[in-house]
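Final report, Chapter 2: Outcomes

The project's central promise was a pipeline that accepts a single protein chain and returns its three-dimensional structure in a standardized token representation, suitable for archiving and comparison. That pipeline is now operational. To close this chapter, we reproduce one record exactly as it appears in the project archive, with the input sequence first and the structure output second.
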Amino acid sequence: MIDYADKMIRNKPLHGIFTAVPRRYDLVNHVITWGLDKRWRWKAARECLASQPEKVLDLCCGTGDLAINIARLAENGVELTGVDYSRPMLAIATQKAELLAKGRRISFTYGDADNLPFPDGYFDSIGISFAFRNLTYKNPLAQRHIAEILRILSTGGKCVIVETSQPRLKLIRKLFHLYLRWFVFGLGYLFSGNRGAYHYLAESAARFYTAEELKEILATAGFSQVSFRPLFFGTVGIYVAVKKEPPGFSYKPEKRS
């Protein structure tokens, strides 16, 4: 029997895409990035652990690659969790973790990014690997998604986002967009048979925010110390945003007599 929350998740626009593509999802990701996505997630995993967190979340974990990288790098005692709203992807993530996580336990949880099943301030570090675009690109719940990340992140905790970006150089940007719309879309469609999924991927990546725009969005939402590290000519990058104070906090100086 499907409960109300599960029904609401299934009615979301992108849910069908991420339920349909898992069978060759990893293969397509590796091919369209020339295998570099593995290195990028490894760098993001290291950043997630840089402040020695006790509890780490892989948000929108998909098939679990970031969570597994974190598990392979983390010291004993770090609590690792992955959450996603695609049950087929979670099933693959669980199987992969049993083989690749070097015996480290990862708790994979079914849940939605606009109503995460965790207490306030629970995680010291949150990683998001090529999913932040899905949470914010033309998404009416974008503000809600960012607010939920802030809610479950502890004060001083880090949100690490590895995501596509817009290269600064005009020529590279144009070539990148051509690559997305022809090679990525064509190959993804050929391998998966899912035209809609890879049309969305190509268009959302081509039209996504610049690094400066996304940094401003994160800072306005309530993060501080937002930084961006470009990778592969700026087509991809790693954002690190720190939660310094609760959302809505504003400092009011005392009146002096």
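Archive annotation: Residues 7-11, 249-257 have pLDDT under 50 and may be disordered.
This record, like all others produced under the grant, will remain available to the consortium after the project formally closes.
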